[in-house]
Amino acid sequence: SAVISQKPSRDICQRGTSLTIQCQVDSQVTMMFWYRQQPGQSLTLIATANQGSEATYESGFVIDKFPISRPNLTFSTLTVSNMSPEDSSIYLCSVETDPGQGLVGYTFGSGTRLTVV
Amino acid sequence: QKEVEQNSGPLSVPEGAIASLNCTYSDRGSQSFFWYRQYSGKSPELIMSIYSNGDKEDGRFTAQLNKASQYVSLLIRDSQPSDSATYLCAGKDSGGSNYKLTFGKGTLLTVNP
Q1: What is the 3-state secondary structure (H, E, C) of chain A?
Q2: I want to staple B34 with a disulfide (CB 3.0 to 4.6 A). Which of A99, B16, B90, B94 is the partner?
């Protein structure tokens, strides 16, 4: 299955600042997904990033708050802008596992644990 | 709003027992389902996927799917302390958003030595 490198693994940020999270995949993928996992909660999809087009955002998430870049088929970034303590979460990127590579599903990066103070 | 519901847990079983985790989903058109294991402080790890009605076995894990009842389950046989984790059920959406997963809230499993 695809191997995803995500960084930073964790950060503590001041409110009002922005953090950019990077995901690098070891193979070309059409879609990359960004999730948020708030403390004690399950995963919520923020947006889907396609190369060459604007990201598609889920209800409750907007581009001004979570701008996404997808410059090529192996890389994406998610920025958390103008942060508040409510943005403290784990942020995860994900790609669909290539059929034929064994278990078909979605693989996750190692996550970014963000704390906003 | 597509929803995936999991039995609330937490679930505690003795070592060597069978752990049974259950999930129901609202999207009747959903065709693919996944079970993820998430250790505390780690990202989710895919352990099973199932697309057809019936059972699918992989080692100590068996996934069961009943599309008529919109029900998915995961059985873990001979449970080990290392199986202690949160288990997340996810369904792949149908229709125009069929590239997306909807996750349940997860069930925390503890296997006691």
Answers
A1: CCCEEEECCEEEECCCCCEEEEEEECCCCCEEEEEEECCCCCEEEEEEEECCCCCEECCCCCCCCCCEEEEECCEEEEEECCCCHHHCEEEEEEEECCCCCCCCCEEECCCEEEEEC
A2: B90
Smallest CA-to-CA distance from A10 within A102, A76, A109 is with A109
Q: pLDDT tens, B68-107? A: 999 999 999 999 999 999 999 999 887 766 678 899 999 9
| Rg of chain A on CA atoms, in Å | 14
Using DSSP's 3-state secondary structure scheme, residue B97 falls into helix
Which chain B residues are within 8 Å of A45, Cβ to Cβ?
100-101
Q: Do B42 and A111 touch (CB under 8 A)?
A: yes
